[in-house]
Specification:
Layout lengths: L3 H4 L8 H24 L5 E4 L2 E3 L1 H8 L2 E4 L4 E3 L6
Parallel strand pairs: 1-3, 2-4
Length: about 80
């Protein structure tokens, strides 16, 4: 899977609007995965241990029940491009 920062790199030969379309499709793919968990008719249980960063936090939030180990740490970082 391509890193988001690689898709919007300024060294790319595509114009900004084409890079934006590719990035939008990438983001919608992730959003669809999270929405699928949210729409599941059965209860969904999320478990976390260690470090959960960014998308992992979004996925846990979409679950109906969340368990976290005592060593769990959560972080949502600001992306600077």
């Amino acid at each position: 899977m391509t890193e988001a920062r690689d898709m919007i790199s300024t060294n790319d030969k595509q114009d900004a609007s084409r890079r934006a379309i590719v990035l939008r499709d990438h983001i919608l793919e992730f959003q669809n995965a999270i929405s699928t968990i949210e729409k599941c008719p059965q209860p969904v249980i999320g478990a976390a241990h260690g470090v959960s960063i960014g998308l992992a936090v979004d996925i846990l939030c979409a679950c109906d029940i969340r368990y976290a180990a005592s060593d769990a740490r959560f972080s949502i970082k600001v992306v600077v491009l």
